[in-house]
Amino acid sequence: MQEPEEKKIALELLETEQAYVSRLHLLDQIFYTELMKEARNGKTVPEEVVKMIFSNISSIYQFHAKFFLPELQKRMEDWSCNPRIGDVIQKLAPFLKMYGEYVKNFDKAVELITVWSEKSLPFQELIADIQKRKVCANLTLQHHMLEPVQRIPRYELLLKDYVRKLPPESPDQDDAEKALEMIFMVAKHSNAAIAEMERLQNLWVVYQRLGLEDDIVDPSNELIKEGPIQKISTRNNSTSEKYLFLFNNMLLYCVPKVIQVGAEFQVHLRINVDGMKVRELNDTQFPHTFLVSGKQRTLELQAR
Predict the structure, then answer these.
(1) Contact 233, 240 (CB under 8 A)
(2) What is the DSSP letter of 57?
(3) Whether 179 and 92 share a structural domain
(4) Which domain of life is it from (predicted)?
(5) CB–CB of 109/148 below 8 Å?
(6) 125 and 161 together in one domain
(7) How far apart are CA 28 and CA 20, in angstroms?
(8) Is 209 inside a domain boundary?
(9) How many domains are there within the chain?
(10) pLDDT digit string (tens) for 170-189?
(11) How far apart are CA 72 and CA 11, in angstroms?
């Protein structure tokens, strides 16, 4: 007799969970533990660095190994008399919020591994030594670290499939749908956290290029567009190269610095978007020109 579709998916969930827990074991109990031991002996890198690389991997490992995997195993053993996993996944969903922290830290963690591998040969050698072991399956530490980042989307896909394949009269229908909704919310939460982080990092980079690091980066600022522009001087009918940064709240009119040490640009003028007007000009001598006028000043500019 053919196994019902939904049971196949539930089994796939269990099998991938077993593989995932062994991957978490490798990250937490082998990589993290051994790197931490060497750091404590003062042989490789500061302990703080190791902690920053592995973020909250220990909590994630404990949760899956001690709670979620055993519950799933129990379910699949009793499947014939109790064919359901929806309630177990509902219990899991709130804990997946702790992935937000790990995911947000991921890029920084990978960067730290690269930087410290160059700075500290013993650190690099220890990682290489662990990577040679059979348990690593010829994959790098970075590769294994990506696994938790991909786990929530995987739950989402499997559960979507499971709900689709459930027969209408299944006792798990309501629970599974509710579980899917919860997982969906967590996935959204973790994606939003990543997007917000990236946005702030980009903003910070722009501020550095402008030499405004001491200017507090206001998280509500958003860069909309940037690019070179010609400033028209009506006095002597000439143009000079300038650069514009348009944010949601201000236009920065900048001059590229000749000597590129530190900042790339010097901010000459800020025009608040509030009350700013833009008007196209029909100038035969200078095509593609427009006027930008704000409370602070009026500029005559030419685009490419």
Answers:
(1) yes
(2) H
(3) yes
(4) Eukaryota
(5) no
(6) yes
(7) 12
(8) no
(9) 2
(10) 999 999 999 999 999 988 88
(11) 9
Alpha helices by DSSP H, the chain:
5-25, 33-40, 47-54, 57-63, 69-77, 86-92, 99-119, 121-131, 141-165, 173-209
Are residues 65 and 162 both part of a single domain?
Answer: yes
pLDDT in tens, 74-114: 999 999 999 999 999 999 998 998 998 998 899 899 999 99
Phi, psi for 203 (deg, rounded to 5): -60, -45
Kindly list the distances between the CA atom of residue 256 and the CA atoms of 28, 188, 230, in Å, as whole numbers in the listed order: 48, 40, 12
Sort strands 277-280 and 265-272 into parallel, antiparallel or unpaired. unpaired
**pLDDT value of residue 216:** 55
CB 189, CB 97: distance < 8 Å: yes
Within-domain flag for 142: yes
The conformation of residue 2, written as its DSSP 8-state character, comes to: P
Domain that holds residue 89: 5-190
Are 58 and 137 contained in the same domain? yes
**Count of beta carbons in the 10 Å neighbourhood of residue 12:** 13
Q: CATH number, domain at 276? A: 2.30.29.30
Q: Considering the domain boundaries, does residue 205 fall inside one?
A: no
Q: Three-state SS for 115?
A: helix
The predicted model gives 153-160 an average pLDDT of 93
pLDDT at 149 over 70: yes
Written as one letter, the residue type at 1 is M
Which of 190, 205, 228 is the last residue before a domain boundary? 190
Q: Nearest-CA neighbor of 166 among 84, 80, 274?
A: 84
